[in-house]
Amino acid sequence: MYETLKLDVDGAVALVTLNNPSQMNALSHQMLAELSKLLDELENDNSIGVTVFWGGERLFGAGANIKEVSQIEKSYDAFVWSRGIQKVFNRIENSSKATMAAIGGIALGGCLELALACDLRIASRSAKVGLPEINLGVLPGAGGTQRLPRLIGASKAKEMLLIGEPVPAEEAYRLGLVNRVVEDGSLLEESMKMAKQIAAKAPLARAMIKSAVNVGIGLDIEKGLEHEAKCFAILFNTDDLREGTKAFLEKRAADFRGR
């Protein structure tokens, strides 16, 4: 069904592999179209709780397809291209599923921007991440200038953006760009372990937590607290809340159904 992506499902976890190694997993028009279609498929599948994106132990992705980008001649076409890829990545960020990027090898440019749209990022110890677009005379157009400062602060984000050199995984962890660093060779195992842990939690609470954080971060504190209270209240009308509290009192594992 997909030529540049590969989908594997393990229980409630969907593993999406960027699968165009001959092009170093560059984000081509075809890959983005297939990614949009795949996101539709996953969003409509209530059995999936977590989506993990990865490219392999030695490569996440080298960025945008430079050959395709070089063919853009007009500013308006560049704007349309940028907004198009932003909309795809926004769907990852705003998915009701938890999303993770498992970064092995290099994650540069648009591929790092894909990872930045995820809720969580895990990197192998030898991985490197960066936004080198300045070296091409351009800037990241798929969310990098907006999401990176929100993760690591404006000053450090500007340093990465203005120098354009990749940083090693340990530095990315220290900055808060990645959540965990794992040993080489164990990236997929550790990522799937974490994904399954998240997938076992209450689906509706997971979605409301994402909403509370993603929406609230763009509001002033009082409006953010109000949005949090609304998300909190919504969950009080769910079977999952009743099951969770009952299971806690009965000292057993909860059986969440997403209702």
TrEMBL record:
Q: Which GO terms describe its molecular function?
A: 3-hydroxyacyl-CoA dehydratase activity
Q: Which UniProt keywords apply?
A: Lyase
Which pathway features in its UniProt record?
Lipid metabolism; butanoate metabolism
Protein's GO biological process = fatty acid beta-oxidation
Pfam family membership, one? ECH_1
Q: InterPro entries, alphabetically?
A: ClpP/crotonase-like_dom_sf, Enoyl-CoA_hydra/iso, Enoyl-CoA_hydra_C
Q: Which residues cross the membrane?
A: none
Q: Which Gene3D superfamilies match?
A: 2-enoyl-CoA Hydratase, Chain A, domain 1, Lyase 2-enoyl-coa Hydratase, Chain A, domain 2
The family assignment reads: Belongs to the enoyl-CoA hydratase/isomerase family.
Spell out the protein name for this chain.
Answer: short-chain-enoyl-CoA hydratase
Source organism of this protein record: Syntrophothermus lipocalidus (strain DSM 12680 / TGB-C1)
